[in-house]
């Protein structure tokens, strides 16, 4: 009878340890792996050493990332990225057309004022 109670106690102790220590650590590791797999050129990142830079190139074969740090290009392992501070935005052709049309209308107004 005492043996069954001891085995049950160790089983409960292992279950509590799993839910307190092991499971959250696995969740954090998965979250970090997902973040590293989503890195793309143009993202602003911070390395584990505290270096801030912009991702210039991602090499999936070697698991490396080339960072542009104010004109200096440095190559790091992907796992040395601690966080993404700002995700790159994608500009579409529509935004370029809008900017061009605004500039075009300003030029038309300048031409009319010159005449």
Automatic annotation (TrEMBL):
Q: Identify the domain of life.
A: Bacteria
Q: Would I find Ribonucleoprotein among this entry's keywords?
A: no
* Keyword Ribonucleoprotein listed: no
Indicate where this protein is primarily found: membrane
Q: Which GO terms describe its cellular component?
A: plasma membrane
The membrane-spanning stretches of this chain are 6-22
State the family named in the UniProt similarity comment for this chain: Belongs to the YajC family.
Q: By its UniProt entry, which PANTHER family does this protein fall under?
A: SEC TRANSLOCON ACCESSORY COMPLEX SUBUNIT YAJC
User: What's the name of the protein?
Assistant: Preprotein translocase subunit YajC
Species source reads: Trichococcus shcherbakoviae subsp. psychrophilus
The record lists the lineage as: Bacteria, Bacillati, Bacillota, Bacilli, Lactobacillales
Q: Which gene encodes it?
A: yajC
